[in-house]
Amino acid sequence: MLQSQLFPKTRKDAPKDADTLNHRLLVQAGYVRQVMSGVYTYLPLGLRVLNKLSQIVREEMNKIDGQEVLMPVLHPSTIWKQTGGWDNVDVLFKIKSRTDKEYALAQSNEETATPLVKEVIHSYKDLPVAVYHIQWKFRDELRAKSGILRGREFLMKDLYSFHESQEDFDKYYARAKEAYLKIFKKLGLVAKVTEASGGSFSEKISYEFEVLTDAGEANILYCDSCDYCVNVDDIKTYSEGDTCPLCKKDTLKPSKAAEVGNVFDLGQKYVKAFDVTFIDRDGKKAFPIMGCYGLGISRTMGVIVEKFHDERGIIWPKAIAPFQVHLIELGEGRGKEIYERFVNENIEVLYDDRDLGAGQKFVDSDLIGIPVRLVVSQKTDGKIEWKDRASEKTELLTEAEVISRLTLQD
Ligand code: ATP
Ligand code: MG
To answer: Which residues form the domain of 77?
Structure first.
């Protein structure tokens, strides 16, 4: 893409109400615009990041036999009344039509996934089933804040699984947890698996995936010497300085964290509400065991900015950077030719073809945060200067060397 044609420009001024880095940097670098508190437009650069993140999540969900669907956001009130959510879920947005019919905006999709699956489950042979979608969610959050970390409208991947027995479910639950850890690892994040209560969903233990960051709202206690971690907001058994109950080598430290995902054993709450039954191996009618698995895609994008930046701007991990390289031309030269060659080689490139000085171009490049910066100018003498966003080191490479490095990158 030609940077001269990218319609949102970078901004020098910080947005007035930005209380967090992700908000400030994403707006200044031209990834998002706030429409109102908790509601954002994703601009071309931001949408590329969101789509790449979604794709990584999608691939891992497909590997655990998830089948992708797209369920609606606008729901009839009846399904929410059937599960009790209409009166009990405080963040549920409720709307009335002009003919006085009542609707809800999806804050999650158990209410559509369960009746959907009911239609196909007759016998144990029809199980297991796992469906997921990547869809916008709406929540009447009292305090939408921290940029895209807490929205009133946000993108979530939510998967719903149905198994014939607790034993089968438990195996799948473990696989799903592994898939989550793989996703966060690919994104360069360390997500601590945190035990929490099942919240409004069930009496059972659920697991949250927490990334340590001051911008997060969860209060956790974690151990530096092993993976132990608890959410102190609802598990009051431990306090700061206690010996780690798992490895017993270290003491528990407090931290703020952002919950990027969670998995719940829903038991039979929803399948009972919608009367989802199947004929089991003994020929008897039974209820399946249901699980739900949420991952906040837009929140994760924000968390990545909180974790990967410096005083000059964002430093995207390669896996979700809007472009692989930022090609910058200084003066008149071979920039256009190199850009076209990259496009032909399927290298994702943002080409700064603007008539601006080196200073301004470098400032913008650092702010936008594409992992590799390439400069062509009279000074590079027929070669291309390569600089990783995260490092100060520069190297002069030939065009062929640059292309082979970029096409060999994973
Ligand atoms: P939180 O405790 O942060 O409110 P939650 O327990 O309500 O999260 P879930 O209902 O389980 O979250 O939603 C699944 C995932 O969706 C969360 O792990 C989080 O990553 C993301 N998420 C939840 N609420 C929001 C929000 N308001 N804005 C952005 N992402 C969100
Ligand atoms: Mg919540």
So the answer is: 13-310
Helix residue ranges per DSSP H, 84-165: 85-88, 110-118
In tens, the pLDDT along 271-315 reads 999 999 999 999 999 999 999 999 999 999 999 999 999 999 999
Q: How many CA atoms lie within 13 A of 209 on its CB side?
A: 26
Ligand 1 touching residue 260 (CB < 6 A): yes
pTM of the model: 0.96
Task: Give the pLDDT confidence of 162-172 residue by residue, as tens digits.
Answer: 999 999 999 99
Q: Are residues 231 and 327 in the same domain?
A: no
Query: From ligand 1's centre to the CA of 31, what distance in Å?
Result: 21
305 and 328 belong to one structural domain: no
- Tell me, using a 6 A CB cutoff, whether residue 299 lines ligand 1: yes
pLDDT tens by residue, 155-202? 999 999 999 999 999 999 999 999 999 999 999 999 999 887 655 545
Do 365 and 390 have their domain in common? yes
Nearest protein Cα to ligand 1, atom 23? 296
140 C-alpha to ligand 2 centroid (Å): 10
Find the farthest-apart pair of alpha carbons in the chain and give their distance in angstroms, rounded: 80
What is the distance between the alpha carbons of residues 3 and 8, in angstroms, rounded to a whole number? 10
Is residue 346 located within the same domain as residue 222?
A: no
